Amino acid sequence: MLIQRLTIIGVGLIGGSLARALKRVGACGEVIGCGRNKANLQHAIELGVIDRYDIDPARAVKDADMVVVAVPLGSMADLFATIREALSPEAIITDVGSAKASVVADAQQHLGQHFSRFVPGHPIAGTEKSGVEASFAELFENRRVILTPLAETLMAAHTKVKTLWTQTGADVVSMSVKHHDEVLAATSHLPHLLAYNLVFTLAKMEDRIEIFRFAAGGFRDFTRIASSDPCMWHDICLANREAILQALNQFNLDLNQLADAISKGNSQEIENIFTNAKTARDKFLG
Amino acid sequence: MLIQRLTIIGVGLIGGSLARALKRVGACGEVIGCGRNKANLQHAIELGVIDRYDIDPARAVKDADMVVVAVPLGSMADLFATIREALSPEAIITDVGSAKASVVADAQQHLGQHFSRFVPGHPIAGTEKSGVEASFAELFENRRVILTPLAETLMAAHTKVKTLWTQTGADVVSMSVKHHDEVLAATSHLPHLLAYNLVFTLAKMEDRIEIFRFAAGGFRDFTRIASSDPCMWHDICLANREAILQALNQFNLDLNQLADAISKGNSQEIENIFTNAKTARDKFLG
Q: Per the UniProt record, which residue ranges are transmembrane (chains A, B) (predicted)?
């Protein structure tokens, strides 16, 4: 069996789905859940997602050979500090955070001798829903999981975490921390900011009821990600702020140019932007 | 029968779907298509969308009791001027343009004595696809259609166009031209600009292949509208530029504030924006 005792800290959409996916293929023995909300953990047992739980992270990781940390980015440092002394000397630790530099810094500072067995990870999967109720075993099938191992990471730890994710049906790739954070700022973090900001702007307008009443399918799709968990996204914004602000800056330069073209009735420039965008989207995502 | 002879100028997604929907319920007799592309019109006959076609708009509207103009906004003025002399003195004319003030101005200037039988309209329906191949009879079911009749509009014309859309399964409402253009700038035109602009920005980045490779479902949904027809959206941007630039300006003020909050690590403000947005979206579109 790949994992004898798996501890999942943060049994929500991602942590819950991972437990379900690994149980389904018999890749793990006992699954211990950990979190701050007893009712949620009890519910996770009832759903068959975990076998038992402990709300004390130090007790929850005891004798676990694999620890998956699925808490918001802002809670990583404290969590690592809390489990450090309780971790087994062979335990492999991984996380599922949407930004990697901040987690790596937290782990380096707080995991001590366990740092070489820490493999930073990020499954590119999810929905706008959150919580263990929203979890399902198929979430990672044919999705990509990015691992960002460091020079100090033990090959064996990297291999085991890679195997773990492969068992869920995901396609696992590795890249540098910096590259991950830049790519995700562009494709995920920036779009979330824009969607949140658009809904925020419209919700303040006087005729907001009319506005949302006449929103069509395009608006619904465009703003779906604005229904994501605000706390999680607050943490991502701060954890990856440099790369996000850089991507936002490039976006704004182009947006100002587009606004200027519209204002001046510069047809050629407007069509150039729209046509380039459509061509790129159809080519890469069509 | 509601309509004896229906002429549809511009047999694409919207025009084609309208013809299909009206034929399905037997609401119209002969359907004449008109457009600049013979092959497309021939294809529309083969698909059973229209009965015959004429590429000359003046000939196409002859003896029609209902003329639906489904051409890009930038082509409206010329089209109205072209059909003016050929229109029957009883013909009712309507359009499906995404912005209304510009169409109304064009109609007022070029439709002459027919202006009182012109009913500006806008079905809030569509997909990112275009062309008659993408048309289907169910497109307008349970969707909203906005009519913006003017003080000069004949009640009988308004009623007939309202009935036409009701027959397609749509929910028809009326509002002022100005209100329509403001609401649509906020819920449709601005999101299209943002989606086009984001894909444009990312497509210029050096690691664009990686970026699109790691784009998840959220990005796919967010950018779906960037696959829309660039020419049509160019025309909308110019036709409704004032309302669009105003909505964009409000969006930018909020976005700058959000960027500032992220840059300064102002958690309370970030959470406030995200939570407000999520609450509004879940309430109005959830």
A: none
Distance CA A243, CA B208 (A): 15
Q: CA B208 to CA B205: how far, in whole Å?
A: 5
Give whole-number Cα distances, B50 to B6, B12, B171, B229, in Å: 9, 11, 24, 23
CATH number of B179-285: 1.10.3660.10
From chain A, the residues in CB contact with B210 under 8 A are 179, 183
| CA neighbours closer than 13 Å in the CB half-sphere of residue A278 | 20
- Is the CB of B141 inside 8 Å of chain A's CB atoms? no
CB contact under 8 A, A273 and B218: no
Concatenate the DSSP letters of all residues of B238-263 into one string: HHTHHHHHHHHHHHHHHHHHHHHHHH
Q: Where are the domains of chain A?
A: 3-175, 179-285
E strands within chain A? 3-9, 28-34, 52-53, 66-69, 92-95, 118-119, 121-124, 144-147, 171-174
Q: B241 and A265: CB-CB below 8 Å?
A: yes
Question: Does the interface predicted TM-score (ipTM) exceed 0.90?
Answer: yes
- Report the residue of chain B nearest A125, measured CA to CA: B216
Would you give the distance in Å from CA A249 to the centre of its chain?
Answer: 23
Strands A118-119 and A121-124: unpaired
Element housing A143 (H / E): none
- Cβ separation A144–B214 shorter than 8 A: yes
Q: How many contacts (CB atoms, under 8 Å) link A and B? A: 281
List per-residue pLDDT tens for chain A, 286 residues long: 899 999 999 999 999 999 999 999 999 999 999 999 999 999 999 999 999 999 999 999 999 999 999 999 999 999 999 999 999 999 999 999 999 999 999 999 999 999 999 999 999 987 778 899 999 999 999 999 999 999 999 999 999 999 999 999 999 999 999 999 999 999 999 999 999 999 999 999 998 988 998 887 889 999 999 999 999 999 999 999 999 999 999 999 999 999 999 999 999 999 999 999 999 999 998 7
Do B265 and A182 count as a contact with CB atoms less than 8 A apart? no
Same fold, B3-175 and B179-285: no
Residue B128 to residue A195, Cβ atoms within 8 A: no
Question: Angle CA(B12)–CA(B77)–CA(B52) in degrees, nearest 5?
Answer: 40
CATH topology of domain B3-175: Rossmann fold (3.40.50)
B265 CA: distance to closest CA in chain A (Å): 6
**Cβ(A35)–Cβ(A41) under 8 Å?**
yes
Residue pair B188/B41 in contact (Cβ under 8 Å)? The answer is no
Contact A245 B259 (CB under 8 A): yes
